[in-house]
Design goal:
The chain is mostly beta strands. It has no helices and 7 strands. A 3-stranded antiparallel β-sheet has the order 4-5-7, with no helix packed on it. Strands 1-6 form a two-stranded parallel ribbon.
């Protein structure tokens, strides 16, 4: 779940934004379809669903929103190991490992501060591209 806050608050306002009735907090489509620079309307969070609270208003958004979550984690790691007997007391082990085998990006959290240009925008990738390592091990 994502936790939202607000910036540029008026005097005596609460730290959280308020919901706009009738607006959904999420935008539709796949995560990749909702990536865009802050200057566009392509956002992970629907900015029209929230507003800055007025003076002496606490803000009605809960600490964690149940319908607003970050993009999930999908990661596949593959290992292939083969042992070869060279001699009675000697073995050779071949090992190949691939991290993030399908090269699936894992996106960072969207900007969660209402009132800044990056609100609702995912601006980073959290994982690395596919990495492959190969090793030989002599066991005696």
């Amino acid at each position: 779940p994502l936790s939202l806050s607000a910036a540029g608050l008026p005097a005596y306002a609460g730290p959280r934004p308020s919901r706009v009735p009738g607006e959904k907090a999420t935008t539709g489509g796949d995560v990749v379809d909702r990536l865009g620079p802050p200057s566009t309307e392509l956002r992970y969070i629907n900015a029209a669903a929230f507003r800055i609270p007025a003076s002496f208003e606490f803000g009605d958004v809960p600490r964690l929103l149940p319908d607003l979550r970050n993009a999930g984690i999908r990661d596949v790691t593959l290992s292939v190991i083969k042992n070869f007997t060279l001699h009675e007391k000697m073995r050779l082990q071949f090992r190949a490992e691939a991290f993030n085998f399908f090269n699936t990006p894992r996106f960072g959290n969207p900007g969660a501060t209402l009132g800044v240009p990056a609100f609702g925008v995912i601006g980073a990738q959290e994982n690395l591209a596919r990495q492959v390592q190969v090793a030989l091990k002599l066991i005696w």
